[in-house]
Design a protein that fits this description.
There is one protein chain. The protein is an alpha+beta fold and 273 residues long. The chain has 2 domains: 47-198, no CATH class; 201-273, no CATH class. The protein has helices at residues 2-46, 53-61, 258-269, and strands spanning 50-51, 64-71, 75-78, 83-98, 127-134, 139-142, 154-157, 162-169, 178-179, 185-191, 197-200, 205-212, 218-225, 240-246, 252-254.
Length: 273
Amino acid sequence: MKIEKYNQRILAVLGTVGVIFLIVALIAFISITIMEHRRFNDYEDTETGVLSDEKIEELQKENKREQVISFRQPRLIDTLNSTYVIPVSHKTLDEKEDINGLLNAYSASSDYEPSDNRYSSGAYGNYNNVIVYKPKTENHKKLFNERINFNRIQSEYFDDDIYLLMNIAKNDTYKDGVINLKDFKSLYIYSLKSEKLKNVGIDGMDVYDYEFLNETKDLIIRFGIDKNDDGTYNEYNEPTIIKKYNLETGILTDIVDEKIRSELQKTLEGTKK
């Protein structure tokens, strides 16, 4: 009997310890989930993109600014000619500062660094320009003269040239006060050989993704269609069309012709006879 009672007590103690362990584990799990949620929200708050033209006009009337430029680490893009690209980023200040005088590089600003990846900068985009730098000649060339926002610089290598590809937003089409990757984007392509910049886009559509056809200079580009006219493309319930762009000719053409598109739509609707 004594042994039986002893075993029962041991089981009771172990059961109690097990319950306590499960409670502690549950509390830890909930705490981690809450922290991750807050971190994600902080990320969204930090990655504001570039302020819209309307917001900039308001700040200029006050003679103030809210964002300052910030440079990312230079990346060697052409070993033979010793050419680098320097992504130009930006930080949003904790408080507005006077726009007159020299740029105060030590003003308080968000210290969030969006990514360790040297090629990209987060979902909302943290780049606003690119500098092509040649140390041998101390030549610096900025690629854009307008306010833009993007998050990735893709390099593509061919025997006769190197191209930089950037999917860029330059207008606040979503009307949320910032220019970021929620807005319509177009594809910009820069040739290191010719030093020319090309823009590929369709008004009212969003460049959703792109890829080179194997062993060619033809790009396959998918454009998102804004069916509900809210100024942004939603991949979950809005369609895409697909086109081909030739880097050398600059011509954008359909891959799937109108006849086949119409037949596919009728088949989907169940109206094809």
